[in-house]
Write a structure and sequence with these properties.
Blueprint: H1 103-108, H2 115-123, H3 151-165, H4 170-178, H5 183-188, H6 192-199, H7 208-216, E1 219-223, E2 231-237, E3 243-250, H8 258-268, H9 278-296, H10 308-321, H11 343-348, E4 360-362, H12 364-373, E5 385-386, H13 388-396, H14 403-412, E6 430-437, E7 446-448, E8 458-468, E9 475-484, E10 487-494, E11 508-511, E12 517-521, E13 535-544, E14 549-562, E15 581-582, H15 584-593, E16 598-599, E17 621-625, H16 634-644, E18 653-658, H17 667-672, H18 683-686, E19 687-689, E20 697-701
Parallel strand pairs: 1-3, 7-14, 18-19
Antiparallel strand pairs: 2-3, 4-5, 6-8, 8-11, 8-12, 9-10, 9-13, 10-12, 13-14, 14-15, 16-17, 17-20, 18-20
Helix pairs in contact: 2-14, 3-4, 3-6, 6-8, 8-9, 9-10, 9-13
Length: 705
């Protein structure tokens, strides 16, 4: 801690949350994706470079055309993916935690801990202390008593510690231990206890601080510090007249475990130049507590020494683990009164009387640490300073510590988390995560909500869910509910009866799509509004053997209805739930044009992939034909332009795919090139050239009002 800040300034800001993860855009530059209907929450459907469909009407036109082969039915078994559980916790945080080895995780969960289950438990915070003696209260707590282990003993302890951190990496262990006898180390750190503590940062996010100290700092020592400071970092002038940083740790803590001493070093070494600011005294504690978590995941016993130092850092870690519940912690103000504000308020309360600027200079060490914290695909700030941008980055990135690791930290601190080993706490049953799929194994974005003849009149939906509960409990029933405006309008039951085992010792039941296929009788949709685009809410309901009713909001889907017109050609893809499915707004357009066009493929049940098409996934893409289309001449263009100029629905036709060449030898191009449509669009922008559309055209329908 830089003078004159008191030890309380080590308290930290908020820990989490959250990074929404989104995958790369799969859309092709050649055929743009169908836009999501304006009322839908699902992402746009994706396209690739070609759409090799050649279809013709089943009526007997004079122009022959090849037919299209129906795509095969696909019903894969899919396990649930990570989706945010209730409570706002984003389980994508910590996505690089597998890059680190933490033996305490294995010891706490020898059979493994499911990522989603850990995320679900994170969402149930706050976690209350099961053993308050591990944390600071209002009572006086002593410092560690001596004597300290000898240099030989501490070196052996450090080796054992590093061998846990770097299993099967003897070169990493030996390389770290070699630093103990580095000439720079011996010159700057005369006390072996501090040398061991500094090297103990190897493998943590603060490891870059070791070389930073050896290269640029002047001194590290124990000292008699005034007040209750844990340590200080200040600027002195060396024998050559050069300003250098020195770090002094209170000799009250000289007998502490080296892993705990490494935590205070990770803080003080952040002060690596002559500047200091409020944000620097916010960021340093945020870093130090992540280091504390990493160290206890190697040696959990450091949290149980009972010393002031251990209980102080345990208390700060409790604060980091419970960022959203400021009124239920064993934290106290100066004077012993319970603290009831936010965590940043708690920290800032001890900074208000300090004459400090708000932010301070860029720091190479901070840059290295932010890089270690960065989630995959996260943009690390360039030349980061101690400022709000760096605070925000640390709150959103802590890759070495994912949900599994954070839950393990809570278990080590004996917090009341039901899934911790030997926890006496009953775990209320709950659905931790759920994902819905269409029968092609793709995430469900649309739902077929109309009476229909396919699959014996049922709309099919697959699911994968993770349920938690007490060991002897089990699930007795699961159903899928469809809600409109908060009212259940349809319920799907499992196609086949199933029985599931008890939750067991890991208190977890994972059910995949091999056992969870719901059939929603389409007759339940008889009264659905077929005229208005809208979304529907999906909810999973489960019942346990103790009679508990569990629900999980599984998101919203766009509504698709059935096209019942008889002006169709080709087969209806019955094995895929029919290809008659479209949005209500697209239905209005087709019914309006009636027999002026003959309709081919639209979208399959529940939308989604429709091989061999690359669009036709959202109920807005329609293949169609009219008599004389295949001539692809000026008369063809005149009919297409007539559709687009229709005063009722012409502007709803966003684009038309047709096969033609944009050159003066192509009669269709010449007929549309200089035409302005009645709504002001250019015909050549709407009627776009696209291969394999010489025997049918393609409409994309998006309402403009």
């Amino acid at each position: 801690m830089r003078q004159p800040i008191t030890r309380y300034c080590c308290l930290l800001g908020l820990l989490l949350i959250a990074v929404a993860c989104s995958g790369p855009d799969a859309n092709s530059p050649t055929e743009p994706p169908a836009p999501t209907p304006t009322v839908a929450t699902a992402p746009p459907t994706s396209t690739v470079t070609s759409e090799p469909t050649t279809i013709s009407p089943s009526a007997t036109p004079s122009q022959p055309a090849p037919t299209e082969t129906a795509a095969p039915t696909a019903t894969p078994t899919v396990t649930p993916t990570a989706t945010p559980p209730p409570g706002g916790y984003n389980p994508n945080i910590g996505s690089r935690a597998e890059d680190y080895v933490y033996p305490a995780v294995v010891a706490q969960f020898p059979d493994g801990l499911d990522y989603q289950i850990a995320s679900h438990n994170m969402a149930q915070r706050s976690w209350q202390p099961g053993d308050p003696s591990l944390f600071l209260g209002t009572e006086t707590v002593p410092s560690a008593a001596g004597p300290s282990p000898s240099e030989e003993q501490q070196t052996a302890q450090l080796r054992a510690f590093l061998e846990k951190r770097f299993p099967n990496q003897p070169e990493r262990v030996d390389g770290a231990l070699a630093l103990l006898s580095d000439d720079r180390m011996l010159a700057k750190v005369t006390d072996h206890r501090l040398r061991v503590a500094l090297v103990a940062l190897s493998g943590t996010i603060a490891e870059p601080a070791i070389e930073r100290f050896l290269s640029d700092f002047l001194l590290l020592e124990f000292a008699d510090l005034a007040g209750q400071w844990n340590g200080e970092s200040n600027t002195v002038v060396d024998g050559s007249g050069v300003p250098r940083q020195q770090v002094r740790i209170s000799n009250r803590h000289q007998h502490e475990h080296f892993a705990l001493l490494s935590v205070v070093l990770s803080h003080e070494l952040m002060h690596d130049d002559g500047s200091i600011s409020r944000d620097e005294e916010r960021i340093a504690p945020m870093i130090q507590q992540l280091v504390h978590m990493q160290q206890m995941l190697i040696d959990p016993e450091i949290v149980q020494t009972g010393t002031w130092f251990a209980r102080y850092y345990n208390t700060l870690t409790l604060a980091r683990l419970n960022p959203a519940f400021e009124n239920r912690l064993t934290l106290f103000e100066r004077g012993g009164a319970p603290f009831n504000g936010s965590f940043m308020d708690y920290l800032d309360g001890y900074l208000l009387d300090q004459d400090l600027p708000e932010s301070s200079n860029p720091s190479p060490l901070l840059s290295d640490i932010l890089l270690a914290l960065a989630e995959r695909d996260s943009d690390v700030p360039i030349d980061p300073a101690f400022d709000d941008a760096s605070i925000d980055f640390i709150e959103r990135n802590h890759a070495p510590l994912g949900p599994v690791e954070l839950v393990t930290v809570g278990c080590i601190l004996q917090l009341e988390i039901p899934i911790c080993a030997n926890s006496p706490t009953d775990q209320p049953a709950g659905i931790a995560a759920a994902v819905l799929f269409d029968i092609d194994g793709e995430p469900l974005r649309y739902l077929s909500t109309d009476e229909h003849p396919y699959f014996d009149g049922n709309t099919l939906v697959d699911a994968g869910i993770v349920v938690t509960g007490n060991p002897s409990e089990s699930i007795t029933a699961i159903a899928l509910e469809v809600l409109e405006d908060g009212i259940v309008i349809a319920t799907g039951e499992l196609i086949s009866e199933a029985s599931w085992p008890a939750f067991g010792n890991d208190r977890t039941l994972r059910l995949g799509t091999d056992s969870l296929r719901f059939a929603i009788p389409s007759s339940q949709f008889a009264g659905i509004d077929r005229t208005t685009d809208s979304t529907l809410a999906m909810r999973i309901r489960a019942t346990t053997s103790t009679g508990a009713e569990l629900t999980y909001d599984a998101g919203e889907v766009g509504k698709l209805v059935l096209y019942r017109g008889e002006n169709r050609y080709e087969d209806r893809d019955e094995a895929r739930g029919g290809d008659d499915w479209l949005t209500p707004s697209a239905l209005a357009v087709l019914e309006y044009f009636g027999d002026a066009v003959v309709i081919g493929d639209i979208s399959d049940m529940n939308g989604g992939p429709f091989p061999p098409h690359v669009t036709h996934q959202a109920g807005v893409d329609i293949d169609a034909w009219f008599w004389g289309y295949n001539e692809l001449d000026a008369a063809t263009a005149e009919t297409l332009i007539g559709h687009l100029n229709d005063p009722v629905y012409g502007s709803w036709i966003e684009l038309v795919y047709v096969t033609y060449e944009q050159n003066d030898s192509d009669p269709l191009w010449l007929a549309i090139r200089d035409v302005t449509l009645d709504d002001g669009r250019l015909a050549r922008d709407v009627i776009q050239p696209y291969p394999d559309h010489d025997t049918h055209f393609h409409w994309r329908i998006v309402p403009t009002e």
